[in-house]
């Protein structure tokens, strides 16, 4: 078994490792550290989240820089403020015995002048987010013209967040002969482009298989009607009393909405998304790390800074658009040698997405049934019994025992047990006694948002620069509907169709009574033969809207241009007046 001593690290770093309690290096550390210490080379290292990548590049950089010089010699770029601060704190811990070492974190949401002062004092290593780094270089506050080492950490996520141009601009101010180390969980084409453009014959280190999920994580999915998604989330939480989880939603709006509903229903929950102030984000993360929050509801971007080893469950309240993102999500659990569970809540119409993810992560999902109300009551009762059994007695209670015994003297042991446990049992029993079965059988032919629905025609289409996703978002924001309330969006050249449940019919008609967009009257009408059970159209193949091109669940989503071939015809649900994209 390899040891840190065998990797070529100096004694001062081995002492720091011992202080932190690390015993053996992870696979990525074992493969990466010796090469980076011994050679001046570029490197691409592919490893999943939570495998110890910070130490893999941190120790070699610390060992190779000159701490006696005030010149900036190392630059580390990371996608989020939280990750930037996390890397900085870890490097400081690794280099605690290096005299004169100064590591500075550069990120948005903090005073740029304070950060500039810290840099001016002399920082051998800068850890930065791309946006703030580009800004400070542009203002002449940072000089990276003499750096010897550059790390692109979580490179795939930085590119997903749109930082390609920022990274390109930043690296243009650095020496061409520096060593560039790229660390990423996945290797999409954008990351490969960065490697080709800024690296010279890099060594590639791969831990496991590209995009493959960790062995310590099991994958489950629960199939429900789309409108029962939130009820399913509550059952999963109640069925796992010790849950310590991250719940992923697609949008900031859904994240906030789900978190607020959980809090209203008595759960220790909070939202983490880009609309929070930095102080709010810090408070949320502090509460989560100290377990005051059991369910952190987050967007994918906001969750990049989460580095907590004891997360028991990742719950995909909504699946991501990009397949690779699922790998990042599930990597939040099953860390530091512990096991974890990644749960997915899906509707019938999303079942094919599970197959696509299985192909990428090379792991099988298990379809599970949501527990019944009585099963949850049983789990909660036995959890309470275990908690009582493991509770340490506080002997400060001793002076009050005589009085308590006097109050309860008329009850037998069995009666006391019934009374104590009835407190918890009654709460769950009253909630679940009339609960329905939320599970949708695999062979059930019902679709997504169940019940009668209305199909609408709207005179907006591809010529108005809409594709199915942008039109869906536009309508949701305008009508203030959730993701599952509006569906089956078909975009054609000059018009489109969409479905809502029948209960939202008047809301839609009223919203467009006198609505104008760019000075043009927008009309909405109920499509001919538009009232259909489940909103589906007859003879559908079931293969709509899911192409793997670009590894995106929604396919390429092009914005079609040009005029409809039947511009003057009033189309119905079966019209062919243009090319269509459906969702």
UniProtKB/TrEMBL annotation:
<feature type="domain" description="Helicase ATP-binding">
    <location>
        <begin position="34"/>
        <end position="205"/>
    </location>
</feature>
<dbReference type="InterPro" id="IPR027417">
    <property type="entry name" value="P-loop_NTPase"/>
</dbReference>
<feature type="domain" description="Helicase C-terminal">
    <location>
        <begin position="225"/>
        <end position="378"/>
    </location>
</feature>
<dbReference type="InterPro" id="IPR001650">
    <property type="entry name" value="Helicase_C-like"/>
</dbReference>
<protein>
    <submittedName>
        <fullName>ATP-dependent RNA helicase</fullName>
    </submittedName>
</protein>
<dbReference type="GO" id="GO:0005829">
    <property type="term" value="C:cytosol"/>
</dbReference>
<dbReference type="InterPro" id="IPR014001">
    <property type="entry name" value="Helicase_ATP-bd"/>
</dbReference>
<dbReference type="GO" id="GO:0016787">
    <property type="term" value="F:hydrolase activity"/>
</dbReference>
<dbReference type="InterPro" id="IPR012677">
    <property type="entry name" value="Nucleotide-bd_a/b_plait_sf"/>
</dbReference>
<dbReference type="GO" id="GO:0005524">
    <property type="term" value="F:ATP binding"/>
</dbReference>
<dbReference type="Pfam" id="PF00270">
    <property type="entry name" value="DEAD"/>
</dbReference>
<keyword id="KW-0067">ATP-binding</keyword>
<dbReference type="InterPro" id="IPR014014">
    <property type="entry name" value="RNA_helicase_DEAD_Q_motif"/>
</dbReference>
<keyword id="KW-0547">Nucleotide-binding</keyword>
<feature type="short sequence motif" description="Q motif">
    <location>
        <begin position="2"/>
        <end position="30"/>
    </location>
</feature>
<dbReference type="GO" id="GO:0003676">
    <property type="term" value="F:nucleic acid binding"/>
</dbReference>
<comment type="similarity">
    <text>Belongs to the DEAD box helicase family.</text>
</comment>
<keyword id="KW-0347">Helicase</keyword>
<dbReference type="GO" id="GO:0003724">
    <property type="term" value="F:RNA helicase activity"/>
</dbReference>
<dbReference type="InterPro" id="IPR005580">
    <property type="entry name" value="DbpA/CsdA_RNA-bd_dom"/>
</dbReference>
<dbReference type="Pfam" id="PF03880">
    <property type="entry name" value="DbpA"/>
</dbReference>
<keyword id="KW-0378">Hydrolase</keyword>
<feature type="domain" description="DEAD-box RNA helicase Q">
    <location>
        <begin position="2"/>
        <end position="30"/>
    </location>
</feature>
<dbReference type="InterPro" id="IPR000629">
    <property type="entry name" value="RNA-helicase_DEAD-box_CS"/>
</dbReference>
<feature type="compositionally biased region" description="Basic residues">
    <location>
        <begin position="560"/>
        <end position="569"/>
    </location>
</feature>
<feature type="region of interest" description="Disordered">
    <location>
        <begin position="526"/>
        <end position="583"/>
    </location>
</feature>
<dbReference type="InterPro" id="IPR044742">
    <property type="entry name" value="DEAD/DEAH_RhlB"/>
</dbReference>
<dbReference type="Pfam" id="PF00271">
    <property type="entry name" value="Helicase_C"/>
</dbReference>
<dbReference type="InterPro" id="IPR050079">
    <property type="entry name" value="DEAD_box_RNA_helicase"/>
</dbReference>
<dbReference type="InterPro" id="IPR011545">
    <property type="entry name" value="DEAD/DEAH_box_helicase_dom"/>
</dbReference>
């Amino acid at each position: 078994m390899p040891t840190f001593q065998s990797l070529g690290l100096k004694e001062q770093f081995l002492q720091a490792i011992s202080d932190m309690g690390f015993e053996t290096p992870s696979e990525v550390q074992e493969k990466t550290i010796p090469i980076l210490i011994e050679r001046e080379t570029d490197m691409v290292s592919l490893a999943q989240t939570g495998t110890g990548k910070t130490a893999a590049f941190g120790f070699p950089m610390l060992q190779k820089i000159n701490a006696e010089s005030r010149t900036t010699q190392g630059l580390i770029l990371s996608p989020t403020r939280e990750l930037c601060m996390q890397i900085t704190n870890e490097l400081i811990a690794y280099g605690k015995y290096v005299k004169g070492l100064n590591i500075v974190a550069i990120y948005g949401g903090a005073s740029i002048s304070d950060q500039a002062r810290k840099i001016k004092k002399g920082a051998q290593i800068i850890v930065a987010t791309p946006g703030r780094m580009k800004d400070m270089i542009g203002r002449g506050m940072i000089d990276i013209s003499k750096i010897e080492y550059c790390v692109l950490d979580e490179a795939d996520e930085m590119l997903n967040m749109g930082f390609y141009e920022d990274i390109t601009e930043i690296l243009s101010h650095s020496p061409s002969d520096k060593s560039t180390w790229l660390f990423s969980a996945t290797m999409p084409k954008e990351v490969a482009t960065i490697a080709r453009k800024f690296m010279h014959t890099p060594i590639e280190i791969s831990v496991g298989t590209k995009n493959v999920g960790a062995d310590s994580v099991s994958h489950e999915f629960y199939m429900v009607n789309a409108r029962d998604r939130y009820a399913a989330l509550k059952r999963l939480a109640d069925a796992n009393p010790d849950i310590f989880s991250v719940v992923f939603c697609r949008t900031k709006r859904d994240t906030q909405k789900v978190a607020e509903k959980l809090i209203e229903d008595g759960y220790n929950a909070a939202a983490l998304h880009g609309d929070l102030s930095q102080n709010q984000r810090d408070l949320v993360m502090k509460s989560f790390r100290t377990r005051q929050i059991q369910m952190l509801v987050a967007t994918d971007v906001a969750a990049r800074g989460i580095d907590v080893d004891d997360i028991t469950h990742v719950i995909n309240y909504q699946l991501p658009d990009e397949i690779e993102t699922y790998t990042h999500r599930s990597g939040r659990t099953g860390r530091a040698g512990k096991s974890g569970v990644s749960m997915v809540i899906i509707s019938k119409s999303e079942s094919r997405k599970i197959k696509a993810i299985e192909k990428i992560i090379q792991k099988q999902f298990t379809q599970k049934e949501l527990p019944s109300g009585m099963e949850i009551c049983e789990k909660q009762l036995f959890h309470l019994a275990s908690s009582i059994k493991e509770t340490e007695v506080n002997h400060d209670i001793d002076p009050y025992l005589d009085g308590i015994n006097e109050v309860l003297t008329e009850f037998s042991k069995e009666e006391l047990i019934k009374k104590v446990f009835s407190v918890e049992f009654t709460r769950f029993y009253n909630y679940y006694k009339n609960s329905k079965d939320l599970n949708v059988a695999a062979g059930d032919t019902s679709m997504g948002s169940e019940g009668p629905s209305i199909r609408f025609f709207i005179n907006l289409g591809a010529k108005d620069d809409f594709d199915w996703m942008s039109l869906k978002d536009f309508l949701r924001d305008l009508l203030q509907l959730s993701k599952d309330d509006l569906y089956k969006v078909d975009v054609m050249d000059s018009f489109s169709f969409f479905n809502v449940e029948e209960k939202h019919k008047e809301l839609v008609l009223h919203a467009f009574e006198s609505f104008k967009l760019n000075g043009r009257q927008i009309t909405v009408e109920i499509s001919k033969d538009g009232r259909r059970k489940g909103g589906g159209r007859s003879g559908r193949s079931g293969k709509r809207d899911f192409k793997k091109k670009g590894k995106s669940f929604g396919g390429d989503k092009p914005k079609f241009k040009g005029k409809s071939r039947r511009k003057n015809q009033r189309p119905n649900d079966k019209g062919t007046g243009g090319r269509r994209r459906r969702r």
